[in-house]
Structures are given as C-alpha cells and as structure tokens.
Write a structure and sequence with these properties.
Monomer. With 428 residues, the protein is mostly helical. The chain folds into four domains: 197 residues, HUPs (Rossmann fold, 3-Layer(aba) Sandwich), CATH 3.40.50.620; 75 residues, Orthogonal Bundle (Glutamyl-tRNA Synthetase, domain 2); 47 residues, no CATH class; 78 residues, Orthogonal Bundle (Arc Repressor Mutant, subunit A). The protein contains 18 helices and eleven strands. The strands form five sheets. The protein has a three-stranded antiparallel beta sheet with strand order 3-4-7. α1 links the parallel β1 and β2. α1 packs across α8. The longest helix is centred in the first third of the chain and has 16 residues. It is elongated. The protein starts with 6 loop residues before the first strand and ends with a helix. 36% of the residues are buried. Bound molecules: glutamic acid. Glutamic acid (GLU) binds next to α4.
C-alpha cells in the first residue's frame, strides 16, 4: 500500500507577530513535509476578529519568505484546498455546525452552538511527542463551536480545516493539549480520521521560566533586523527540542529535511540560548562567499557605502571571521569609509608615527614590503612592538581592535595612509 501523503500545516492567528516558538513549530512542520516529499500548508486562523492585529498577516508572510519556509499552499498562491483564510470559509463551518446539531453532539444555547462533551470517562490519544495523554472529560467544558454571528471558534474551524485540507500531522505547542479532547470528539462525531498529533514543548529562557521578551526573546523579524542570517536562525531552531547526536552541525534546510526525525522531538522543555544562536550565525557568516554576503550586509550599511561594491568585496574577507551579526560590520569597518575621529584617542608616542610615516612614504606598496620595512624600523629604534603597532593601528583606524592592519593599509592605499598619519602628527 502506498504511504499516504504527508501534509502538515502551520495555522497562525494574525493576532500579533508570531513568537519565535511558533516559528520553530513552522520549521518542524515544514521539515516533516519535505522529508516525506509531502506538502506544507500555511493557513490563517483569523476567526477571533476582536484580537486581529492588521500588520501581523504581512509579518507572517515575511517570516516565511525570510526563512524560506515556503508553503506549498497558502492564501497568496492558493491551492486545491483553498481558501486558506478561515473567514473566507464560513459557509463550511456553518454547514458542519448544523450537522453536529442534527447528530445531537452539539446544542444551541444563548445564540451559540456548543459541543456536548461527555461528563464521564476520559479522552485519550497517543501524542507523538508526549506519549499517551488522558484527560478527564469532566475537566472539559462545552466549548462554543459557532457564535451567534455565524463565526466559528478555533475549535470547530481547526478540525474542519485540518480534515478538509487532508492534514496528516498536526504539530503545535503544548498550550493546545487541553483543547484536543474537544477536537477529538468532533472528529469522532463527524466520522473523520484523526491526524497524528504532536504537541511540542515550550521554549524556556535560561532561568527555566517561559520564554519572554525579558529573556531577550524576539520575533524572527527582530532577529533579522539585528543581523542574524535566516540560515542561522533555522539551524538554531532545528536543535531546539530535538535530540540528535551532534547538536551543533551546520545544516541547510535541505540537509535538515533529510535528517529530521519527528520521533526525536523531545518532551522536555527546550532552553533558548542566545549564545547558541550567535554561534550558528558566526558559522553561517563564515561560510558565505563575499559575493553572497554583500547583499545580506547592505541593509546594515550607511547609505553612502551601499554603492561601493568593489571596496566592500575587498573588505568582507578581512572581517568575515570576526562578525557575530551582520550589524557588527559597519562598526568594525567604518575606517575604510571615513577618517577616524582622533579626539578621544591617546597615543604612546608621537615619534612612532613620525618614523612610521617616513618609512611608509618610501616603501613599495605591497604586503611584504610594508611589513619588512616596519619590522626594520622597530628593530632599529628598539621600539616596543606592541606599543608601536597600537599607535599605528589607532592612527589608521581609530580603533584598538580591527581587521588585519597591513591588509587594511593596502586597501586604503598609500596616499590615504600618509594623509591620516599627517593629520595625527599635527594633532598630538
Ligand atoms: N491558530 C492557532 C495558533 O495560533 C493554531 C493552533 C494549532 O496549531 O492548532 O497557534
């Protein structure tokens, strides 16, 4: 028998910018579909009209585009099970609410249609992540399914849509566990097959409390604006709550899809560690070629630099190893674009700079000539090398820590180096 097609979904409510934990669920759902050559669906659950935040729909799309978690079916591109926005499917929910009323599993009260939950026994299921879960039915209220204005609640809409969209696996956060008994009763009443359900744990901050802004947790769009690469964010999220032997391998989405194993999703809460995200970002920045990095850096550059492609391409290889985020680039390299501001810099010795200027005006302008003439100079005068080169570095760059000095001098050119030295010598 052919394996049924794997169809997964992420079903955000446009009630705010998705939290990083929601994005992790989207990644897992995406990978599960791709691993099985199935489809990943993005559905917008906008039935809670009172809580709608208009800009969140655009943010949801932006997150998926940025991380390249491209749905096979969604409201923008459509698909065989559309529409993919719940408020455009109201007639469907109304029809099934009627059917539930007729079957006696729902009832009408104060204008709303509610599910009639059994009052005894348990509702149980085998959760892919949590194992067997049993919830006493008396703990589950008769939830509203359809409001008097004809708008369904999440409970009815999610079940109808997961069924009509042929969803095979539901991955969602543990906060939905208590709603699952309601959904299971709806599946049963309608005679529908229940998808495989996986409730993934919460993300915790390093202090083991629920991850929040206080821990520095942000939405993916904020991480993007802080200079994190989508590759690094995906790589980081992949290992959050997953147990693989190597939990720091650098992986592309394609590689993740090959090794993703839904049975390795962990039950324990996952700890969000920003240093790990920084680690992946550093690794991914190193891996890109300068030409690949260039367009990624541009949004972080002051506008006059943006057009200087050839200069940027020379500078990138000198700095790639040192970048934690793309945002570090302009601070580290501003001396290539403008002369340093010397007002708050103190030098050890003016003589260092006078001698350096003399030698640098005579030398041939290549790496070995520059280095050997400076070496000779410090030997002859028995200068303290550390102090001499710090003075020179400060004069050229205005900073104590910079990309390699000789390479920087080569890029800046002899004229520019001599003129910076002249400025400093006059000033101190
Ligand atoms: N709309 C729900 C949310 O915003 C979806 C929950 C589910 O995946 O069933 O998270």
């Amino acid at each position: 028998m052919a394996m049924a097609t794997v169809r997964t979904r992420i079903a955000p409510s446009p009630t705010g910018i998705p939290h990083i934990g929601n994005t992790r669920t989207a990644l897992f759902s995406y990978l599960l579909a791709k691993k099985n050559s199935g489809q990943f669906i993005l559905r917008i659950e906008d039935t809670d009209q009172k809580r709608l935040v208009p800009e969140s729909l655009e943010a949801i799309y932006e997150i998926h585009d940025f991380l390249k978690l491209i749905p096979d079916e969604d409201p923008r591109k459509g698909g065989p099970s559309g529409p993919y926005i719940q408020t455009q499917r109201l007639d469907l929910y109304q029809k099934y609410a009627q059917e539930l009323l007729e079957k006696g599993v729902a009832y009408q009260k104060e204008g709303a249609i509610r599910i009639k939950m059994p009052k005894q026994g348990y509702t149980s299921w085998n959760d892919l992540v949590q194992g067997k879960i049993s919830i006493p039915n008396q703990e589950v209220d008769d939830k509203v399914l359809l409001k008097s204005n004809g708008i369904p609640t999440y409970h009815l809409a999610v079940v109808v849509d997961d069924h009509l969209m042929n969803i095979s696996h539901i991955i969602r956060g543990v906060e939905w566990i208590s709603s699952t008994p309601v959904h299971l009763h709806l599946y049963q009443a309608l005679g529908w097959q229940v998808p495989i359900i996986a409730h993934v744990p919460l993300l915790l901050g390093p202090d083991k409390t629920k991850l929040s802004k206080r821990h520095g947790a942000k939405s993916v769009l904020e991480y993007r604006d802080d200079g994190y690469l989508p590759e690094a964010i995906n790589n980081f999220l992949f290992y959050l709550g997953n147990s693989y032997q190597d939990n720091s391998a650098i992986l592309t989405l394609k590689q993740m899809a090959q090794i993703f194993d839904e049975t390795k999703l962990q039950k324990q809460n996952a700890i969000f560690d920003i240093e790990k995200l920084q680690f992946f970002n550093k690794q991914w920045i190193k891996r890109l070629t300068p030409a690949e990095l260039l367009p990624r850096l541009k949004p972080f550059l002051p506008s006059p630099w943006v057009v200087k492609d050839s200069l940027l391409l020379q500078i990138i290889p000198l700095t790639q190893e040192r970048l934690t985020t793309l945002k570090d680039f302009p601070t580290l390299t501003n001396y290539f674009f403008s002369s340093p501001d010397y007002t708050s810099i103190s030098f050890t010795s003016k003589q260092h700079l006078i001698d350096a200027r003399a030698v640098l005006s005579q030398t041939e302008w290549n790496k070995s000539a520059i280095e050997s003439s400076l070496q000779q100079l410090t030997d002859t005068h028995q200068y303290h090398r550390g102090q001499f080169f710090m003075d020179l570095r400060l004069a050229i760059t205005g900073q104590k820590i910079t990309p390699p000095l000789t390479e920087s001098m080569l890029i800046l050119g002899q004229q520019q180096i001599l003129s910076r030295l002249d400025t400093v010598i006059k000033l101190i």
